[in-house]
Automatic annotation (TrEMBL):
<dbReference type="GO" id="GO:0016740">
    <property type="term" value="F:transferase activity"/>
</dbReference>
<dbReference type="Pfam" id="PF02458">
    <property type="entry name" value="Transferase"/>
</dbReference>
<dbReference type="InterPro" id="IPR023213">
    <property type="entry name" value="CAT-like_dom_sf"/>
</dbReference>
<protein>
    <submittedName>
        <fullName>Uncharacterized protein</fullName>
    </submittedName>
</protein>
<keyword id="KW-0808">Transferase</keyword>
<dbReference type="InterPro" id="IPR051283">
    <property type="entry name" value="Sec_Metabolite_Acyltrans"/>
</dbReference>
Length: 65
């Protein structure tokens, strides 16, 4: 996907668009750097995002990465 050039240069990011968006949907794409990298798009409803942002255990685990 990153090799496509429509006259604006190579893409910086790949997104799925508006179709099939629902809470918890995950898309995984080959990463821009290739060589085994991946890009992940996670769709969350506002209330799910709010719950994640206030989950201290989750935030601590993400910080350790």
């Amino acid at each position: 996907m990153y090799q496509n050039d429509f006259g604006w240069g190579t893409p910086l990011v790949v997104r799925s668009g508006n179709a099939n968006k629902f809470d918890g949907r995950i898309y995984a794409y080959q990463g821009r750097e290739r060589e085994g990298s991946i890009d992940i798009e996670l769709c969350l409803a506002p209330q799910s995002m709010t719950a994640l942002e206030s989950d201290q255990e989750f935030l601590e685990a993400v910080t350790e990465l």
